Predict the 3D structure of the following.
Amino acid sequence: MRPFPNAPFLPLVASACLAAGQAPAAERFVGEAYAPDSGKLLYREVHLVDGKRQVVQYQCPDGKAFARKVLDGDANAIGPDFHFVDARSGDEEGVRSKGGVRSVYAKRGSAAEVAKPLPQKAGGVIDAGFDAYVREHWDSVGKKGDSIPFLLPARFAFYDVRLVDGDVRGGERRMTMKLDSWFAFAVPAITLVYTTADRRLRRFEGMGSIRGANGKQRTVRIEFLPQKREANVADALVDAAAADRLDGRCTI
């Protein structure tokens, strides 16, 4: 979700054979990204989550994967390490830990990677950790209008974002997310819809994390349908999703 990068932040795969004797323990869910004007399916986010990492595979409508994000740590971490790569362009970004030191890095196309120390920020939220933050602060988030420090890897800095609570209707809670700064007028707001029963993201509307053919982020509507959520899928699927070749070349 850039300009709040990778929203997907959502928090947002592969097919593999279950190893003999391996107990299924992962969860799989799918987000389908549509063009808000035409309703055309642009791509899918296929998420696999187990106890130690999350893998998101971005697929063309034909099912071929073109990008991937891997987050280290459980789904409740608000500041996880992560790595995102888009094989179409060569773009990469993320946060890594080495020797007890964390750094944030970004790479655009064939240019060299740029890495800097991760800024120290109390309560700093990174990537899909935003979804964990919302669940953890469910009763208070959006009501006081407090600012949430959110990392923009491409700018190597945390920026304050603000959640504004909206209406609750039909078992869904709507929130609006926007930059909390003087230049917020230049950045479109993002709408998040959560189900009240299980606090899961149901819909995302706004600037997505995937760039179009012109190199700019696309405005999308991402639907996370309950019927496309599976519990207790094979752990082996997470490994397969993290290793699968990225060969999709769809135009988004």
Observations:
- The chain has two helices and 15 strands.
- The helical segments are 129-136, 236-243.
